[in-house]
Amino acid sequence: MAGILPTGPRNPEASARVRTGLALVLDLPEARTGLLTVCARLLRAQDRVGFYAELAAPVREYLDRL
Hints:
By secondary structure, the chain is mostly helical. Helices cover 71% and strands 0% of the residues. The protein is globular, with a radius of gyration of 12 Å. Residues 1-7 have low confidence and may be disordered.
């Protein structure tokens, strides 16, 4: 998920380029639904998958801005 989110914690510059390049798609209502679904699944699995636990805080911040 990091690097895919508009403000990925591992490489913000790459994340910004991806967000800019995919803006026409990511700004569609269907994409918002998909992003919310992915974020919800990640947050639900954070206790089972260590890497997801690491992403939980940035995902919550992202959801606050969505």
